[in-house]
């Protein structure tokens, strides 16, 4: 689960750089398989969402439970909604302005 996100603005235009750094915390067994209705996790990550052939490989990798690791990347793609963790973490300039709506376009 992501715990922090940092973008090195000074290296964004460098094609060889990886300016995005995300800190990830490995989930405990309880966190990784919450009861969906009673869960306090808000990211939609559930073991039941994993593809059948990926599940065994991912379940076998439990040595890092509770451990944090840093991942460096060229880009960050926030697909977690208008009022998401990614937007909140990136700061005020990325916050949605105005009213939200449930209207279908």
TrEMBL record:
<dbReference type="InterPro" id="IPR002938">
    <property type="entry name" value="FAD-bd"/>
</dbReference>
<keyword id="KW-0560">Oxidoreductase</keyword>
<dbReference type="GO" id="GO:0071949">
    <property type="term" value="F:FAD binding"/>
</dbReference>
<protein>
    <submittedName>
        <fullName>FAD binding domain protein</fullName>
    </submittedName>
</protein>
<dbReference type="InterPro" id="IPR036188">
    <property type="entry name" value="FAD/NAD-bd_sf"/>
</dbReference>
<dbReference type="InterPro" id="IPR050641">
    <property type="entry name" value="RIFMO-like"/>
</dbReference>
<keyword id="KW-0285">Flavoprotein</keyword>
<keyword id="KW-0274">FAD</keyword>
<dbReference type="GO" id="GO:0016709">
    <property type="term" value="F:oxidoreductase activity, acting on paired donors, with incorporation or reduction of molecular oxygen, NAD(P)H as one donor, and incorporation of one atom of oxygen"/>
</dbReference>
<feature type="domain" description="FAD-binding">
    <location>
        <begin position="6"/>
        <end position="101"/>
    </location>
</feature>
<dbReference type="Pfam" id="PF01494">
    <property type="entry name" value="FAD_binding_3"/>
</dbReference>
